Amino acid sequence: MKLKKKATNPFSQKLKELEPEIDLNISERLDDNETAITQVFANCSDLVVRRLLMFGSMPAMVVYLDVLIDKQLWDDGFLEPLMQQETPPIDSSSQLKEQLEFRLSSIVQPAVVLTMKETVGRIVSGETVLFVESSPQAFAFALKDKLNRPLDEPSTEAVIRGPRYGFIEKMDINLALIRHRLRTPRLKTEKLSAGSLSRTDITIVYIEDIAKKSVVEEVKRRIAGIDMDSVLESGYIEELICDHPYSPFPVIQATQRPDMASGSLIEGKVAVLTDGSPMVLILPVTFWFGFQSAEDYYMKFMYATMLRWLRYLFAFFAMTLPSIFIAVTTFHQEMIPTSLTLSLAAAREVVPFPAIVEALIMEITFEALREAGIRLPRPVGQTISIVGALVIGQAAVQAGIISATIIIVVSITGISSFLIPNPGMSQAISIIRFPLMLLAATFGLYGLGIGLLAVLVHLVNLRSFGVPYMTPLAPVNFNGLGDTLLRAPWQIMRKRHKHTRR
């Protein structure tokens, strides 16, 4: 006796042949839709599938992830209006949508969903999807839980004068902070996503008729071309879309300050907001942008100009001071005054290592202490970074491992790096410092000169979304010099830079 084969449901059979992100139209039967959803979200304990009688007599089903929805909004703004029984006859999907819009509050309005792939995408994004018996479409409702935190002062950028609040991990809040400062309909926002698993929301922000359309299109093209399972932070995007990922210099600016992001948009730049990250990316940028601070525009232009020159000077010290010391003490002692030479010789008399080894020991130790001060809890970290450097340095001098002179050189170098307001630029200079030290120890000042020339050639060849990195000096743009080497008065800075104009 042969057993009869159980009849297979065509909907379920097709479902098994498809990938987890199923591209299938929504069925008119609730059972088929429930089967599809439960198979896609198998072993997901936070998935909720609930049957109900909508408007008293209409079979329906709601699906959502319990950890992502706002419980109060679900109860008061969504479930309670649906359970009300007084309703006129509903004969079509359009009438059903109108009735839902009429019953629900303005903050809980339906969006029509036609495919199962879109349904899955909306569920994992925190929305609630409503299926209705005999309807070939579903309705999605934004009942997301607002995972917000208070607006705090930016932790990566010290605020001396200006707004004390910074961006947070919620992209909608960050966009609102920009909208609060730029109250114009010309501020455009375009939403994308990246990451096949994370599906991270990304928003491109720019001012129409000011930002170059070619730059906006190029940003969208590069973000759309990201092929990764997950994009968890804006740092992923910064590395994946920049022109020169192997260069130590930042060709995209990351900021946590809404005023800096708004000012950059006014200049014609583009901002990239990433959901889950408090850092907003600004592009295109130039080399000089790494030495500018938002406070430069909130103070007297004369003092701001002096501060900029101070940053340039000490950035040069941060890059080259250890190399100059190594080259002069190793190869060019005739350049040192006689009294200073005798003092250096007396200090180094008990030191067993050459100058390059001393400098490397102290530079690596300093970088380690600085990193430890960042990683440790804040009260302990400050103590480790300051007291640790003093104790280790003094003990090393007394033990005769290093000389007191190299302590002074490394200390000035460390202080110089702290004057650079852009962390990315400070990191780039710290990286370049070490190969310059090796060149100085090998070839003296000639090696240092060759290294600086190579850095200059590299900077001239960099591009940030088509903009030369050394603009407005190479190529020369006299209009931009007023906000580069100087901070000219506002009466003079009335034109945007040439590289950001349409």
Description:
It is a single chain. The chain is α+β, with helices and mostly antiparallel strands. It has helices spanning 10-16, 30-40, 71-82, 93-103, 116-124, 171-181, 213-224, 234-241, 258-266, 301-331, 338-347, 355-375, 378-398, 404-418, 423-443, 445-461; strands spanning 47-54, 58-65, 111-113, 128-132, 138-141, 187-194, 200-207, 253-255, 270-274, 280-283, 463-464, 467-468. It has three domains: 10-141, no CATH class; 171-285, no CATH class; 297-483, no CATH class. Strands 1-2-4-5-3 form a five-stranded antiparallel beta sheet, with helices on one face. Strands 6-7-9-10-8 form a five-stranded antiparallel beta sheet, with helices on both faces. Strands 11-12 form a two-stranded antiparallel sheet. Strand 6 (187-194) and strand 7 form a beta hairpin. Helix 10 packs antiparallel against helix 14 (404-418), helix 10 (301-331) runs parallel beside helix 15 and helix 12 packs across helix 14. The longest helix has 31 residues, at 301-331.
Question: How would you concisely characterize the structure shown here?
Answer:
By secondary structure, the chain is α+β, with helices and mostly antiparallel strands.
